[in-house]
């Protein structure tokens, strides 16, 4: 029985710090680190193609995402229409590409009854994202929800996750794009050393304020801070708040009302408790 | 900074089939199998004790749960009041004891800022439940949400999980209690052999209808079916539905409108997408 259509929500994911762990096998490659998943996210609708070949829409405009195409190939689905709708800015460190890949995997599996398990779908999306060079850790984090700690890199079967048990309001402001491919394509040795140190500190004290403090140090020691974000972090700290830079984007995020208190006009959401989930009302049993 | 109070929701969990895997180390002991988590669940409120020593309430009545006490000891929290409220019948196969233990762990950690990670809290609740003999696999399933497949037994660090990606309406009817301790305390060899076979079939085809069919066979071959449940399963099958017995309870659960269609007057909920989550509004940042 095939529904021919399914809709899936994937939370946004902001990485607070990370280390990069390349591997020839895309399922084993990935990143370690920590971050927050957000109730602002990406909705992916997959359905049987209305015309020849199928359409690809990103926020209503024709636009193809490489990892999405790879996921569809891996699941061997028929010609489909894929519509990706993002609550979040693209290219700004929210894991939109990973969300699009994972949402497509879960939605296509449901719409065309592909009979894959959750781990299988997460692996397919993770591999597609890694091969395209657009991300290393967003997919496994977005599948879990909450505040994922990526203990070991890679897809299910390779990686290992923990989490900071937390619920909080999150504010964010984006100043523009930053290319994940450029940073991840360069020398990541110093960055990764800082990321491993940061992870050890969060594992020793898995609390949100610790993650934010560690993330600020990471961004500084890895030389990733951009001026607008640096200024915003300082402004939030000056009013007693906790803020950090999104990896990788010209984005600052803060706990609670940190950015509002500092005079910014942020977007507001919360930590997402659920992770990736089917949200279609069609074909419900 | 300690909030002194926190409220946590834990979904109910119905095991469809399982195999038991004892181990001298409670974190390594557990079960393999599959089941569904439910939007009907258990809410646990933990707060600083209002009087000497602290109170324990279960649905408003004074009542202590062994695993809850063990969790509080493990987290070394001060004198607390614990109020457990269940949307579900107790002793009927919904994992209420596991939910109470896990909810207490997450709520006490938050209320008294214990700084434990999610894996740590799941392990503490799992160990408490195993030591008390009240369950083997509910806690890890309830932490995850969805339709968990327990690939390997035990707490995080020992066990391994997958899931059937699904959203569905679930109906259930309970005919009374069945002692988990009695079944798990007896010879579980034949039961576990049937459970391992069932797990292989669901791993080969991770779909909900397959899980339900496999669960019916498991209950029959493990000789666990009680007459009222057997009758109800047959009635649902006769109208083209999918039903199975909850392990371990005198409970039948069905996909969609199976029990309604068969003339029963069931409780109605859905598969829970989120797993265990903090729901208190107090102290929100």
From TrEMBL, chains A, B:
InterPro entries: GHMP_kinase_N_dom, PoK, Ribosomal_Su5_D2-typ_SF, Ribsml_uS5_D2-typ_fold_subgr. GO terms for biological process: coenzyme A biosynthetic process. The keyword Kinase applies. Keywords: ATP-binding, Coenzyme A biosynthesis, Kinase, Nucleotide-binding, Transferase. One of its GO terms (molecular function) is kinase activity. It catalyses: (R)-pantoate + ATP = (R)-4-phosphopantoate + ADP + H(+). Residues 65-146 form the GHMP kinase N-terminal domain. Its EC number is 2.7.1.169. Pfam families: GHMP_kinases_N. It comes from the Archaea. The keyword Kinase applies. Phosphorylates (R)-pantoate to form (R)-4-phosphopantoate in the CoA biosynthesis pathway. Belongs to the GHMP kinase family. PoK subfamily. This is Pantoate kinase. It comes from Halorubrum laminariae. The lineage of its organism: Archaea, Methanobacteriati, Methanobacteriota, Stenosarchaea group, Halobacteria.
